[in-house]
Amino acid sequence: MINKKLDISLISNYFTRIMKTEGIIALISSIRDKAHRFIIQQLKERGITDIAPAHGGIFVHLFRNTEMTMGEMAQSIDRDKSTVTALVDKLVALGYVKKERDIADNRVTKIRLTQKGRSLEANFTLISNELLEQAYHGFLEEEKRKIIDLLGRMNKNF
Predict the structure, then answer these.
(1) 106 within 8 A of 14, measured Cβ to Cβ
(2) Are 97 and 51 in contact (CB under 8 A)?
(3) What are phi and psi of 100, to 5 degrees?
């Protein structure tokens, strides 16, 4: 009986140790899911129900830039062009974004926010601040910098 308890204890300790280091992807995924639920709830509370967290990067970059090419957007939000096209096309259909061909190079498509899209900036800023406040609750400034540094390094591995 002692060996059985010892074996269970060793196995439990082994899996606990592994989960602390090898469970990083599951942990990141869990944080992402919780952040998405938080964003969806915040949007809903503000009466914004037709966009998803996946559109957030597009809005943020267009809030900062008057216009961008589809290629620039894909690179900025680290998504492939076909994904960005689908996301942007939905925002165009909803009236948040306008697409137009570049006059100098007809192969290039530029995007910009419409007035309706630009009107969401204050809400996005508030939601972003609330999300960061929630995520960093209880963290010291040095811990915030360290976690960003470490996750940034991990991201570069892919």
Answers:
(1) no
(2) no
(3) -150, 150
Report pLDDT digits (tens) over 147-158.
999 999 999 999
Cβ-Cβ contacts under 8 Å for 102 (sequence gap 6 or more): 69, 108, 109, 110
In the numeric block, which tokens belong to residue 145?
């910098």
Per-residue tokens: 106: 């007809």
Task: Delineate the domains of the chain, giving CATH numbers in brackets.
Answer: 27-48+120-158 (no CATH), 50-118 (1.10.10.10)
Q: Would you state the structure tokens that stand for residue 12, as one six-digit string?
A: 């439990």
Q: In what order do the strands lie in the sheet with 68-69?
A: 68-69, 109-113, 97-101
Whole-angstrom Cα distance, residue 59 to residue 70? 13
Helix, strand, or coil here: 148?
helix
Inter-residue contact 113 to 95 (CB < 8 Å): no
pTM of the model: 0.80
